[in-house]
What we know:
Elements: H1 3-14, H2 20-36, H3 43-69, H4 74-111, E1 120-121, E2 124-126, E3 132-134, E4 140-145, E5 148-152, E6 158-162, E7 173-178, E8 182-187, E9 193-196, E10 200-205, E11 214-225, E12 234-237, E13 242-245, E14 249-254, E15 261-267, E16 270-274, E17 277-281, E18 285-290, E19 293-298, H5 301-304, E20 311-318, H6 319-330, E21 333-336, E22 345-351, H7 356-366, E23 371-374, E24 377-380
Parallel strand pairs: 1-8, 6-8, 11-12, 21-24
Antiparallel strand pairs: 2-3, 2-7, 4-5, 5-6, 7-10, 8-9, 9-11, 10-11, 11-14, 12-13, 13-16, 14-15, 15-18, 16-17, 18-19, 20-22, 23-24
Helix pairs in contact: 3-4
Amino acid sequence: MKTEQVKELLKRYNDGQASVKEADAVNDWVEQELEQTSWNKSEEDKVAFGIALKLKIDAQINLGSEKEASGTNSLKVTRFRMISAIAAAIAIVLLGTIVFWRMRNEDASRRYANDIAPGKNTAVLKLANGQKINLDERNGTLDTLNGIKIEKAANGVVVFTILDRNADASNQKNTIETPAGGQHQVVLADGTKVWLNAASSLTFPGEFGGQQKRIVSLTGEAYFEVTKDKTHPFLVETAKQEVEVLGTHFNINAYSNEDNIKTTLLEGSVQVSASGQHEVLSPNQQSVFRNNALQVSEIDPALAIDWKNGEFRFKDEPLESILRKLSRWYGVRFVSELDENNTPSFTGSVSRFDNISSVLTMLEETGNIRFFIKNKIITVK
């Protein structure tokens, strides 16, 4: 296509007089310009670059029209100059924005060069006979102890099943432990389902037998779906509190490096006891034990079990709390260079199974902070 034909086509496009075929020809030309640029662009970059290119075209058309009109109408000349200047200025701003985001993305790529994968289902099962089983390495039947079959099902869940009800395994303590960067699920002999979060452990008997209470011990965080048994309450012991239930769904967060213990009820009823204080929770309530005081409030339970549902969900959550969660799940250590008296809070959500860079990017986009990854140490500035 000759230069004059191109100019005429662009002018008709700009004036809104181009046919569908002519408009397609202009769009194809713009696409070719995008393909010929020397750096890779995101979809947002391409849209912005296309707009900038269109404005540049408009400016060139107006300048050409200015020359045509210069000998006949000075008012038109002034108008064309004004339009051209505005179009060119907007194009410069848009192109500058593209360059800024390009540099920012390149900076993030450099800082996240040592990206870290998310945690996974991994744990160690310590049986009452002293045997330690790495659950990553075993499938199917793991052992049979005192009438209790222990197996890792096809879905990865560890299941304790009573084979001989005359055998007594109530005094045989077993422990399942998840490392930083791990999580796991176990089904106890009474059918109770337990999901363990990262860096957590649960100690429980092979079966509850004739015990008056079904007692388990927890460190870290776990979500429970307790099988109903009105004659045998289910009791979860942590370092500083106890939670007693008959049959219900609830979450306990009792990490030693947190300054509180949170118990969140989703279904049924639980009694929380700590330092001589007792509170009965209703669904959608959470108790917080801090500084020897037990307090209850209404809460969106989805925020408490985000980890079980494969998410990180934050609502006005302090950065320090978020970093502790990330540290446990990704197995990393954070070093903060921020002012301890002026750290931000965040609201948002992101998949728990993305690389850590996805979470850090979300935090960077909502706050004036930057993260730098080096091996398993992440510096916050």
